[in-house]
Amino acid sequence: QVQLQESGPGLVKPSQTLSLTCSVSGGSTSSDGYYWSWIRQRPGKGLEWIGYIYHTGNTYYNPSLKSLVTISVDTSKNQFSLKLTSVTAADTAVYYCARAAAATRWFDPWGQGTLVTVSS
Amino acid sequence: DIQMTQSPSSLSASVGDRVSFTCRASQNIFTNLNWYQKKPGKAPSLLIHAASSLQSGVPSRFSGSGSGTDFTLTISSLQPEDFATYYCQQSYTTPLTFGGGTKVEIK
Fold first, then answer.
1. N or C: which end of chain A has fewer CB within 10 A?
2. Chain B contact for A105, CB < 8 A?
3. CA B2 to CA B69: how far, in whole Å?
4. Which residues in B lie closer than 8 A to residue A62 (C-beta atoms)?
5. 3-state DSSP call for residue A119?
6. What pLDDT band is residue A2 in, cutting at 50, 70 and 90?
7. Is A47 within 8 Å of B50 when comparing Cβ atoms?
8. Which residues in chain A have Cβ-Cβ distances shorter than 8 Å to B30?
9. Any chain B CB within 8 A of the CB of A49?
């Protein structure tokens, strides 16, 4: 059974870079057929897809965040990562990693989520 | 971007009730529609994919229907563990987008 777990700082200062890692167990980030995804939920808001990466390194980002986001994958560590630059308070959110089958793009499973607060 | 609109935003119901709520897409997404359940402090979990296919392990009281732009999630007999927020998500095209959610509360 595939499991995902997010890790990273819970507090980031404005204008700095938010960095999170998702560790995958029970499955492989080098497997064909899956996108490794980041999704966030800002306080009191709905879910927002940030982007995803294929094991080849091909990435797809939400255009609303594209200029600020980098998703990378380290298949040797079975991890993938999110970097969001120049953060503001509006980037305070619970960040989830999730797997999506490439052919269908529904998200399953998800990590437990990690709260990142942007504050000085 | 495809906008996903869920209604109502919240509803109150009792255990045993049959409840339905809807998700509308701003353009035709065929059956590329998925439903998730989210409880406070927990990750979302996939309930229904491709509009009407029940995810493995999900109770049969959950069902989905619809195609094109209008979709419905139905819970045939609400159970205590079903009080949660439900989100739809279109997987037709990027950017992948979610609805704003329907919160099911205890009456």
1. N
2. yes
3. 10
4. 94-95
5. coil
6. very high
7. no
8. none
9. yes
| pLDDT per residue as tens digits for the range A4-42 | 999 999 999 999 999 999 999 999 999 999 999 999 999
What percent of chain A has a predicted confidence (pLDDT) above 70?
100
Q: Six-digit token pair at B72? A: 């419905």
Size of interface A-B (CB pairs under 8 A): 55
**Cβ atoms of A44 and B101 closer than 8 Å:** no
Cα–Cα dist B56/B85, whole Å: 20
DSSP B55: P
Report the alpha-carbon angle A107-B88-B69, nearest 5.
120
Contact A45, A120 (CB under 8 A): no
Give per-residue pLDDT as tens, B36-88.
999 988 999 999 999 999 999 999 999 999 999 999 999 999 999 999 999 99
Interface residue of A2, A41, A42, A105 to substitute, partner B, most B CBs within 10 Å: A105
Q: Which two tokens stand for residue A99?
A: 């797997």
Confidence of residue A66 (pLDDT cuts 50, 70, 90): confident
Instruction: Return mean pLDDT, chain A.
Output: 95
Distance CA B39, CA B83 (A): 8
Q: Give which of B99, B94, B44 is closest to A66, Cα–Cα.
A: B94
Amino acid at B104: V
Chain B partners within 8 Å of A22 (Cβ) = none
Coil, strand or helix: which one is A92? coil
Q: How far apart are CA A71 and CA A52, in angstroms?
A: 7
